[in-house]
Amino acid sequence: QKEVEQDPGPLSVPEGAIVSLNCTYSNSAFQYFMWYRQYSRKGPELLMYTYSSGNKEDGRFTAQVDKSSKYISLFIRDSQPSDSATYLCAMSAKETSGSRLTFGEGTQLTVNP
Amino acid sequence: DTEVTQTPKHLVMGMTNKKSLKCEQHMGHRAMYWYKQKAKKPPELMFVYSYEKLSINESVPSRFSPECPNSSLLNLHLHALQPEDSALYLCASSQPREGRETQYFGPGTRLLVL
Fold it and tell me: Which residues sit opposite B4 in a β-bridge?
């Protein structure tokens, strides 16, 4: 069983839809959670990060963490064609020498005009 | 400024060639990383340098040799690569905070081994 499970999609939605992206994890040591967006043939771009359970909002994006259920989500409101990309969840445990990120497989999202 | 730069953007090399990938950051971060990413897969960690010392080596073949000349620069020396090493090579940096840190990625070098 993988430490982090993420539905790879692909996910296709109309412009303006609310998008929900999810990851589950099995390692209780994970305490820091991130979402990256990766456009085709580009490097991952950090979207949001959090280390506490609850919601964190940034514009159209909301990150949600439920540590008791080992479940994290990213919501995108009013989705735009420019949101079309692969979304990667990533998480890390406490380490002293740089962090080791464990990624989900990534969800490929297409927002249709 | 959260920019990590990588050169070259693209590289084509034969299996007998020696080449180097370069990465630079000016955010004052003291941890730097090399990742390998194949198509439709997440990045795979190769090496981590923390305070200019190699702290993680994920059992990468010796044909990949990392170097950290100073806190801003990271190199990956390539020698006698195989076609299956063709991939996007990503550099990242972060400020070590015992796991509570965010990694910033560069745009990557797309490598093709013939």
Answer: B25
